[in-house]
């Protein structure tokens, strides 16, 4: 899939654990894990907004497009 999810990168930059982010955002750690591994088929804008707010970042810091070759 050409969309890369960089939640792990932002978590490391903010020195935050996945469990803490999941609690702040209001999603399960299992759903956050699915998102982090790129297995999610979509993300709600409400969830993306909450992640960006919790990590003090922009959507572009989390989502990255890489063309398939």
UniProtKB/TrEMBL annotation:
Domain of life: Bacteria
Start and end residues of each HTH cro/C1-type domain: 13-62
InterPro entries named among the record's database cross-references: Cro/C1-type_HTH (IPR001387), Lambda_DNA-bd_dom_sf (IPR010982)
Signal peptide location: none
Sample GO molecular function, one term: DNA binding
CDD domains associated with the record: HTH_XRE
PANTHER family: DNA-BINDING PROTEIN, DNA-BINDING PROTEIN-RELATED
Name of the molecule in the record: Transcriptional regulator
UniProt source species: Chitinophaga silvisoli
């Amino acid at each position: 899939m050409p969309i890369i999810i960089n939640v792990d990168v932002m978590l490391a930059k903010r020195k935050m654990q996945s469990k803490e982010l999941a609690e702040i955002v209001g999603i399960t750690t299992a759903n956050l894990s699915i998102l982090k591994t790129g297995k999610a088929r979509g993300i709600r804008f409400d969830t993306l907004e909450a992640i960006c707010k919790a990590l003090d970042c922009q959507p572009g810091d989390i989502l990255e497009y890489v063309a398939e070759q």
